[in-house]
Recover the amino acids of this structure.
């Protein structure tokens, strides 16, 4: 089954996508991730949108960087309206069973425009062992999850 989510992101903002269940037996994989500016035609907008396993404590309003080695990163999208280019990287093998967080930064030099997102997740029934492994991995990557 496919679950879809869509919404608008404010510059420097973060959105929580609620996915967690009591037993955590439903897992998810990102299948599609798309961006669209709130005001198409604004050539000053450079959107950097990231999807994380954990809530981010800081989100820049400009100068966002991308670190693909971050173990909590599930996907990243970059859209430059000046050059009409878009790059999306999805770590398709990542299965998660907790809430995810989407952040947005407009790197376009002060335009501070908002950005739309569209997200498709594939649902996966998880065994007890897979659920335990996913939970333990999340605790190891983010010690405050278990606290």
């Amino acid at each position: 089954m496919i679950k879809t989510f869509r919404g608008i992101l404010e510059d420097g903002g973060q959105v929580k996508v609620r996915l967690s269940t009591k037993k955590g037996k439903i897992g998810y994989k990102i299948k599609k991730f798309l961006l669209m500016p709130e005001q198409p035609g604004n050539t000053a907008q450079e959107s950097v949108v990231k999807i994380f396993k954990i809530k981010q404590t800081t989100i820049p309003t400009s100068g966002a960087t991308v670190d693909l080695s971050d173990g909590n990163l599930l996907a990243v999208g970059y859209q430059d309206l000046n050059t009409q280019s878009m790059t999306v990287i999805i770590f398709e093998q990542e299965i998660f069973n907790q809430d995810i967080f989407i952040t947005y930064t407009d790197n376009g030099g002060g335009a501070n425009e908002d950005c739309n997102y569209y997200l498709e997740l594939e649902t996966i029934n998880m065994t007890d062992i897979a659920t335990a492994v996913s939970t333990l991995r999340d605790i190891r990557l983010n010690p405050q999850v278990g606290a």
Q: What stands out?
A: The chain has a mean pLDDT of 85. The first strand starts at residue 2 and ends at 9. The radius of gyration is 16 Å.
